[in-house]
Design goal:
The chain is α+β, with helices and mostly antiparallel strands and 119 residues long. It contains two helices and five strands; from the N terminus they run E-H-H-E-E-E-E. It has a five-stranded mixed beta sheet.
Length: 119
């Protein structure tokens, strides 16, 4: 039975990887801009055109879930650097709250969780 190759103790610094806090900032700002445009511009415009409120509510929920799913998939494409060993980490997406971001490093097992909280 072949043994898997050993994982190096200290992996090299990930090339072109951004810190986790910068990644959280990018994802949060993307969420914020999309939600502001959707609920600040699009929904009021559709309501003024006579679209029923029930259709807007259902459409808004489906849109919000879909946008968070797409943003989570896009967030996995951006390389993120581990805060402990400087290798690439894995972005696991949002937690139960859409402003909670989870990362786990494959090399050292370090788990990071960032949460955006209000004032």
């Amino acid at each position: 039975m072949a043994t898997p190759p050993p994982i190096p103790d200290r992996p090299a610094k990930a090339p072109l990887a951004i810190p986790a806090r910068a990644h959280v900032f990018l994802i949060f700002m993307l969420q914020f801009i999309v939600v502001m445009v959707a609920f600040g511009v699009t929904v009021p415009a559709l309501h003024s055109l006579g679209v029923p409120t029930a259709v807007l509510v259902v459409g808004s929920v489906v849109f919000l879930v879909g946008v968070h799913f797409v943003i989570a998939l896009l967030g996995r494409l951006i390389p993120v650097r581990c805060g402990q060993c400087r290798a690439r980490t894995r972005y696991y997406g949002f937690g139960w709250w859409p402003f909670t971001y989870h990362y786990v490093c494959r090399h050292c097992g370090h788990a990071m969780k960032y949460e955006i909280v209000g004032g």
